[in-house]
Structure formats: C-alpha cells, structure tokens
Amino acid sequence: FHIGEREEKCIIEDIPSDTLVVGNYKVQRWDIHKHEFLESAPGLGMFVTVTSPSGEVLLSKLYGPQGTFSFTSYLSGEHIICFQSNSTRFAVIAGSKLRIHLDIRVGEHFLDESAIQAKDKVNEVNVRLEHLIEQIHHVTKEQDYEREREEKFRKTSEETNSNILWWAIVQTLILISVGIWQIKSLRDFFISKKLV
C-alpha cells in the first residue's frame, strides 16, 4: 500500500485470542528524479503500533526501513495495526510517497528448511510432525473463535427478530384500538345527528 511521508495508515486484523502474529514489512521511497520507487529508504524508519480490541497498546516501537514485528493477542477481536514514518521533514516539504510491502502471518510457524536438512531423517519427520500438530492447534483455535462469533451473531439476530415480533404486535393492537375508537366515534356522531 502507499502512504504519505508523514501519514499514518492503519489496518484491522480479526485475530483469535492467544495467537502469535508476525509481520514483515519493507519501505520504499518515491524518487522524484527517476520517477520510480527506490529499493530502500535509508534513514527512514517506521513506527509500528498495535492496539488490542480493548484499546490496550500491545506494541509501539520504531523499526528501520524494513523489519519484522511480532505480538501475541490476548483477546479475540479486531486488532488495529498502524504504520507511520519517522520523517522529521515539515508537512509542506514531506510530500514524498512511500510504498510499504507488508506480509502478516497469523498463528503460523514456518519451518526453517536449512535446519531441517541439517538433521537426520528421523528428526526431520519429528520436526514436521510437531509443526503439523501446531497447525492443528491453530486451526482448532480459529474454529472455536469462529463458532463464538457465530453464536454471538445468532443471539443478536434472535433478539432482533423478537423485538420485531413485539413491535408488530404493538402496532396491531394500536391499529385495532384506533379502529374500534373510530367506529364508536362515528356511531356516536350518527346517533347524535339522528341519522341512524
């Protein structure tokens, strides 16, 4: 994504509780003379701030032009991850565009292939098996989180349907009572005018 040099950009990630999140990013600065993004942005860093659904700041740190950040979610819900450059240029001068390449991995632990190749076959199978078990635990945790969200949504839907039903009943009672009142008023009017 692209941001201005002094602009803050936030993304929202819906993350289950007790889940490791690892993010890798790289910043490129727009070169006015070459009309392209430079491969690196020396001297430019990024403030990375992560806020939990309860508003607690889980991470607030300055990194370089490229880096890796990680945090563990303690609550399930929408976590806000914000990026802002550490540019000290004035807002009028700081008109450069920045391109940020971002890769966020939620709950996954990637295998180090070079370490696996250095071990014998039995250890390789053991490490891969442990990795699969970790992935199974992550998938189970993700499913539990989705079930919890679905149950919350179902309760909200049922409450809304119940409210709509009661509102319809109240409207019907009001309509019937107004109809009865109109009939009585018309009957009394006709009797008083001696038309009936």
Automatic annotation (TrEMBL):
InterPro entries: Emp24-like, GOLD_dom. Keywords: Endoplasmic reticulum, Membrane, Signal, Transmembrane, Transmembrane helix. It is found in: Endoplasmic reticulum membrane; Membrane. The chain crosses the membrane at residues 164-183. It holds the Pfam family EMP24_GP25L. Residues 8-106 form the GOLD domain. One of its GO terms (cellular component) is endoplasmic reticulum membrane. It is a single-pass type I membrane protein. Belongs to the EMP24/GP25L family. This is TMD11 protein. It comes from Oriolus oriolus (Eurasian golden oriole).
